[in-house]
Amino acid sequence: MSVTAAQKLQCVERELSYRRRVYARLVARGKMSELERIEEMRLMEAIRDDYRELVEAEAVPLFIETKRTVKQA
Length: 73
Fold this sequence. Notes:
This protein is 75% helix and 0% strand. It is mainly α.
């Protein structure tokens, strides 16, 4: 079974939400530095952005332009 870029993006979004909550608690407890939190979030956000680009590239247009529709515009 193939996993789509859209499914991967949804998973990354869920993971980011989870990490925001968990990392804040880890920093508050002194188990993670603020710098580590920022770097980890930056990396996950970069992965999210990569998948967003893939999803946009895979998007199927709802309407296909033909020579006729282009002339009307």
